[in-house]
Design goal:
48% of the residues lie in helices and 18% in strands. The chain is α+β, with helices and mostly antiparallel strands. It has a 5-stranded antiparallel beta sheet with strand order 3-2-1-4-5, with no helix packed on it. Helix 1 packs parallel to helix 3 and helix 4 packs antiparallel against helix 6. The chain contains 7 helices and 5 strands, in the order H-H-H-H-H-H-E-E-E-H-E-E.
């Protein structure tokens, strides 16, 4: 079990992201190598439960979302047809409950199409219309000492983010209330120091 007291939010995200991958890879191994369906399903479900824990903690980032979506796609791809009927509603519930995250990345279409194919159910195809516009990036807030700006970390890049570039924040009081690690969407812009974040929007869980 990961100890929250010993890690800051950034390192917690890294640790939980690796844990999701570990559960997923273990599930794949049980399916492919050991032909142990029960343990395979169980480990994939642990991966999904771990992502839900991170959602509740507010420590989700783009890499974690990718690992989660890849795990979900692998689970559906490898699930034996003898297990399809008993897992169809479970998978559908996961996709519906995490649709706001799944729709943030390119794996969205891959996951939804695989669900429709595996379970012969196209009722979730409407989620394909929820993609973010081209050029939109996803990142996490990193607080700064100055109250009028923060930084946004996105896939190993850090962007300056001034309060005036937030679409739903108008005052320093509101910006101060934003949690460290809060997930946001943004576009890349330029200021006199180089790349920065513009059109920043808080992503609600």
């Amino acid at each position: 079990m990961i100890s929250d007291t010993k890690l800051d939010s950034q390192n917690l995200r890294v640790a939980y992201t690796e844990l999701i991958s570990l559960y997923s890879h273990s599930g794949q191994s049980f399916f492919k190598v050991q032909n142990d369906i029960e343990n395979g399903v169980g480990h994939f479900k642990k991966a999904f439960e771990t992502f839900e824990i991170c959602n509740k903690k507010g420590i989700v980032d783009i890499k974690m979302i990718k690992n989660f979506c890849e795990s979900l796609h692998s689970f559906m791809s490898m699930l034996p047809y003898t297990e399809v009927s008993k897992n169809s509603q479970y998978v559908k519930k996961i996709i519906e409950s995490q649709q706001h995250y799944i729709g943030l990345i390119y794996l969205n279409r891959k996951v939804i199409f695989k669900y429709a194919e595996k379970f012969e159910d196209d009722s979730l195809n409407w989620l394909l219309d929820n993609n973010f516009s081209e050029g939109t990036k996803i990142g996490n807030i990193v607080k700064a000492v100055n109250e009028s700006y923060v930084f946004i970390e996105s896939e190993n890049e850090k962007y300056f983010a001034h309060i005036t570039d937030f679409l739903d924040i108008k005052t320093t009081f509101e910006l101060n209330k934003v949690k460290q690690g809060q997930l946001v969407s943004f576009e890349e812009g330029q200021n006199y120091k180089g790349p920065c974040a513009i059109n920043i929007k808080i992503i609600s869980s």
